[in-house]
Specification:
Layout (H helix, E strand, L loop, with lengths): L33 H14 L18 H15 L2 H5 L8 H12 L4 H8 L3 H7 L1 H23 L9
Length: 162
């Protein structure tokens, strides 16, 4: 994790620590779709990993400096976004991809409890920050239920004897 030097005990920019609100040696399983597993395996096959297991590092094998991320991210945004999207500050920071990913899961119909689990956050946090997508999921669920209920009311055409 990158933090300002003034916020670490030893003045380093990178700090190694346990997961937020978890025991020092705790890990968290993050299930990912097979297509992403394939992409990550290809990346590791082509580029390897750092001695400490990190997938992404600079040419010297060290941590990537935050300013390098910012420069690369800015170039990527300019290359792929329209002027309007750029002006709206769409995906302004790399961290915005987390929000985009969770929003994509919800819009894809993934159960909100599963989205929260995968994101490593509580369902309450998910409901607070993704209410728009959850409202859309609620409306979609209502349409599915109404469709099923209409099927119950429709005559089946089995008019035997009476």
């Amino acid at each position: 994790m990158t933090v300002g030097k003034e916020w670490t005990d030893n003045g380093a920019v990178h700090e190694i620590h346990s997961l937020k609100r978890r025991a020092a040696k705790a890990t968290r399983v993050v299930p990912i779709p097979p297509v992403l597993v394939s992409m990550l395996r290809d990346h590791m096959r082509q580029l390897g990993v750092a001695p400490d297991g990190r997938l992404f590092r600079n040419a010297a094998g060290k941590y990537i400096d935050a300013s390098a991320y910012g420069i690369t991210w800015g170039r990527a945004r300019e290359a792929v976004l329209t002027l309007d999207e750029h002006a709206l500050e769409l995906a302004k920071r790399p961290y915005d991809l987390r929000h985009a990913g969770i929003s994509f899961w919800l819009a894809s119909g993934v159960d909100p409890a599963e989205c929260a689990r995968r994101a490593g956050q509580s369902i309450q946090v998910l409901f607070r920050y993704y209410a728009k997508f959850l409202a859309e999921a609620r409306d979609h669920a209502n349409r599915l239920i109404e469709t099923s209920m209409r099927r119950w009311e429709e005559p089946t055409g089995d008019s035997e004897g009476g």
